[in-house]
């Protein structure tokens, strides 16, 4: 799902090909220029001959695009390598639009990875290269990214001004990509209004976003705006309505994304509503989910600060000093992450962005008329590319569904098993290792692996053995780490349970995750996907469908 989210952003913000085709030799570029992004390694291999030819011909523009369009295919480290290669060839081409887009794409990668410092640096460099660009879509895309950084840093007044310009521009364009950027700009200005506590403007603008996303049939933005609508109901004291509304938006986000930021915000608003309704047990459950996400992703946001203050005071009132200390440390960590991040990045915007924009304001006004005369040509080209995108996207959806069904059938027809005990390393092949094997066998038979928060040290303590010996035994016998071994036991157990016991098929994913010993739905979903290649929600729907 992470790859799906990155691909969605790539399709929205990719602009270079729209404005470079008119100068290209169609026979030379072939079908490559029709793509917004390479979506799998097979496409990279298919272009290998064209790549070798481009190297010989010193076709730097093709080489830069070839690497840039691979930025969603690998892990962060490899993606950075291909983007650096794209930047290298872009500079050799001496085309400022190409260089600017290479920096912009690199900034997008950092932004998705929540590295706002490096994202900002690359956006500002991109902005300098695009100062005199005739590619309005690319320029306003860069402006939108800088506005997002400003909103994140509480530079909200400036962010609102930039978002407003983006909203005006993208709304005036009649193509699929601009429609998505228009919705993204409306969503961005929501964040800016929220940062300065201008709830009147926030809720007014969010109702517009809700209406426009429904008109444009965009489920993603529609469901995100539902969460903000839930917050409006919370502020009005309509706590039950807040819970109901946020849960509707959250259901879509959990099924279709791994956006832990908005998942955390949703849990937070539901928890605060339950707290106001004096249903503290339910509230604490959601607050713990938020805290688990914070521990896993280290994402700091001012939104969560009041929650930690509530938790500190709650445990203080109960005399639970260890819990109180834990949440004090969590709040300090939250503040330290924010402080360390903002000290560098906020002044950077003032020095490297605002001054440059003031100088360019007059020049932009003078060139507006010339840009308008070309905009009609761009609309036609963008519309055609939008149609191509829709076709490609539809084909990919069909292929994805087929792949999921094949993996599901495999799980249904083949019993879930754990690798049998094999030969033990000579290093621990003694009485101790034999005792560990016997205890592990009993551990599996008694299904003690369903305990929550089970660690290597805890299991070693329960088995009355040394954690190093235990880890070595599992590595040798199972051929995997302790974490993978534990996850495999849990997931195989759940698969068999759902296949054999019909009553569990009516359980929610959260309930099944808890049954398997996971603290959060996200941890369970990730472990299930890593092992099977499909989401537990898909598996559950299919098995329910087959057994109606």
UniProtKB/TrEMBL annotation:
What single Pfam family name could you report for this chain, choosing any that match? HTH_18
What are this entry's molecular-function GO terms?
Answer: DNA-binding transcription factor activity; sequence-specific DNA binding
Q: Where's the HTH araC/xylS-type domain?
A: 434-542
Q: Tell me the keywords, alphabetical order.
A: Coiled coil, DNA-binding, Membrane, Transmembrane, Transmembrane helix
Q: Transmembrane stretches, by residue range? A: 376-398
* Annotated coiled-coil segments of the chain: 426-453
Q: What is this protein called?
A: AraC-type DNA-binding protein
């Amino acid at each position: 799902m992470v790859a799906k989210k990155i691909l969605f952003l790539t399709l929205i913000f990719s602009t270079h090909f729209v404005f470079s085709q008119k100068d290209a030799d169609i026979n030379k570029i072939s079908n490559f220029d029709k793509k917004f992004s390479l979506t799998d390694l097979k496409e990279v291999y298919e272009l290998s001959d064209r790549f070798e030819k481009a190297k010989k011909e010193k076709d730097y523009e093709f080489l830069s695009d070839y690497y840039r369009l691979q930025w969603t295919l690998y892990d962060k480290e490899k993606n950075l390598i291909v983007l650096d290669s794209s930047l290298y060839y872009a500079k050799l081409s001496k085309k400022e639009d190409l260089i600017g887009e290479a920096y912009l794409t690199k900034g997008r990668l950092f932004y998705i990875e929540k590295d706002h410092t490096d994202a900002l640096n690359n956006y500002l460099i991109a902005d300098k290269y695009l100062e005199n660009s005739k590619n309005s879509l690319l320029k306003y895309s860069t402006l939108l990214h800088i506005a997002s950084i400003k909103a994140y840093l509480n530079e909200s007044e400036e962010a609102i001004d930039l978002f407003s310009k983006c909203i005006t521009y993208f709304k005036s364009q009649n193509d699929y990509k601009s429609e998505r950027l228009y919705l993204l700009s409306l969503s961005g200005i929501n964040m800016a209004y929220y940062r300065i506590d201008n709830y009147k403007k926030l809720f007014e603008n969010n109702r517009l976003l809700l209406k426009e996303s429904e008109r444009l049939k965009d489920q993603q933005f529609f469901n995100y705006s539902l969460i903000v609508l839930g917050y409006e109901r919370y502020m009005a004291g309509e706590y039950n309505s807040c819970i109901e509304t946020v849960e509707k938006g959250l259901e879509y986000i959990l099924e279709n994304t791994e956006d832990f930021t908005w998942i955390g915000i949703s849990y937070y608003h539901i928890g605060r509503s339950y707290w106001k309704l004096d249903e503290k047990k339910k509230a604490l459950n959601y607050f713990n989910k938020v805290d688990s996400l914070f521990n896993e992703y280290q994402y700091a946001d001012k939104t969560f600060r009041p929650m930690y203050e509530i938790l500190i005071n709650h445990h203080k009132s109960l005399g639970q000093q260890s819990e109180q200390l834990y949440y004090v440390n969590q709040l300090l960590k939250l503040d330290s992450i924010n402080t360390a991040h903002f000290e560098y990045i906020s002044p950077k915007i003032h020095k490297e962005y605002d001054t440059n924009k003031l100088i360019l304001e007059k020049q932009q006004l003078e060139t507006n008329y010339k840009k308008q005369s070309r905009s009609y040509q761009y609309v036609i080209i963008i519309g055609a590319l939008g149609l191509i995108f829709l076709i490609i996207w539809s084909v990919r959806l069909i292929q994805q569904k087929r792949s999921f069904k094949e993996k599901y059938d495999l799980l249904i027809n083949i019993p879930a098993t754990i690798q049998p005990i094999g030969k033990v390393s000579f290093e621990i092949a003694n009485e101790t290792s034999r005792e560990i094997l016997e205890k592990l066998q009993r551990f599996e038979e008694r299904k003690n692996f369903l305990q929550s928060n089970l660690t290597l040290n805890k299991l070693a303590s329960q088995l009355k053995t040394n954690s190093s010996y235990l880890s070595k035994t599992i590595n040798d016998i199972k051929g995997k780490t302790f974490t993978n071994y534990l996850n495999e036991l849990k997931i195989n157990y759940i698969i068999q349970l759902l296949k054999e016991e019909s009553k569990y098929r009516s359980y929610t994913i959260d309930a099944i995750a808890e049954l398997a010993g996971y603290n959060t739905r996200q941890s369970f979903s990730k472990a299930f996907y890593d092992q099977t290649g499909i989401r537990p929600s898909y598996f559950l729907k299919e098995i329910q469908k087959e057994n109606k």
